[in-house]
């Protein structure tokens, strides 16, 4: 596991070259309060997450979490991403499996990706995704994700970064709400 963390740190270090003052690193437990605060800023600006969680720190640390990273810009938390095991009923792994013929267990789900409104325009989302993808590949897993159909900015980001649209469908959330999501797979590495 330490070797994987070192590889993720190398990817994060390489990502610094694309923009001065931005560092991507593995998330630590003492980062969670800042992560929740910035998530609140994102929710106020963009409505993400669509349903504000009762326990935001727990939402950022879902069951099956493999790793999480944060981005810091000029010493302040600027973004977050997580990588988790695919759960039964997740649409993106099922669509990937149908398309490739591989079992859904060969996927991992990228989630909880957000960038602080004040820090946008510096490729922070792309850098966070690169760390998650590199870690997934080091584990021998293929990264997939889903995004609300109404989140056009996120959809545009994934398309711009070469992610493959696997299809769309309805997803049942734990809250009981059914939403339409677009599912994507990371570009082949």
What is the topology?
Blueprint: H1 2-15, E1 22-26, H2 32-46, H3 56-59, E2 65-73, E3 76-85, H4 91-100, E4 107-115, H5 124-138, E5 142-148, H6 152-160, E6 164-172, E7 178-185
Parallel strand pairs: 4-5
Antiparallel strand pairs: 1-2, 2-3, 3-4, 5-7, 6-7
Helix pairs in contact: 1-5
Structure description:
The chain has 189 residues and is of the alpha+beta class. It has helices spanning 2-15, 32-46, 56-59, 91-100, 124-138, 152-160, and strands at residues 22-26, 65-73, 76-85, 107-115, 142-148, 164-172, 178-185. The protein contains six helices and seven strands, in the order αβααββαβαβαββ. The chain has a seven-stranded mixed sheet with strand order 1-2-3-4-5-7-6, sandwiched between helices.
Distance between the terminal alpha carbons, to the nearest Å?
Answer: 21 Å
Low-confidence stretches: 1-18
Roughly how much helix do the residues carry, as a percent range?
25-40%
Helix-strand pattern: HEHHEEHEHEHEE
User: So how many helices?
Assistant: 6
* Quantity of strands, as a count: 7
Q: Averaging pLDDT over every residue, what do you get?
A: 89
Strand order of the largest sheet: 1-2-3-4-5-7-6
Radius of gyration, in Å, reads 16 Å
Which labels suit this protein?
alpha+beta; 189 residues; 30% strand
Question: Quick gist of this model?
Answer:
The protein is of the alpha+beta class and 189 residues long.
């Amino acid at each position: 596991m330490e070797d994987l963390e070192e590889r993720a740190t190398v990817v994060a270090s390489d990502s610094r070259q694309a923009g001065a003052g931005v560092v991507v690193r593995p998330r630590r437990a003492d980062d969670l309060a800042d992560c929740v605060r910035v998530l609140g800023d994102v929710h106020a600006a963009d409505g993400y997450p669509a349903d504000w969680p009762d326990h935001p720190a727990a939402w950022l640390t879902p069951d099956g979490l493999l790793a999480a990273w944060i981005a810091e810009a000029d010493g302040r938390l600027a973004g977050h991403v997580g990588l988790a095991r695919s759960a039964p009923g997740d649409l993106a792994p099922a669509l990937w499996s149908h398309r490739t013929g591989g079992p859904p267990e060969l996927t991992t789900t990228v989630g909880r990706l957000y960038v602080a409104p004040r820090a946008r325009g510096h490729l922070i989302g792309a850098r966070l995704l690169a760390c998650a993808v590199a870690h997934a590949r080091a584990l021998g897993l293929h990264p997939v994700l889903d995004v609300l159909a109404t989140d056009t900015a996120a959809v545009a980001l994934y398309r711009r970064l070469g992610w493959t649209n696997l299809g769309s469908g309805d997803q049942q959330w734990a809250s009981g709400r059914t939403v339409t999501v677009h599912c994507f797979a990371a570009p082949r590495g």
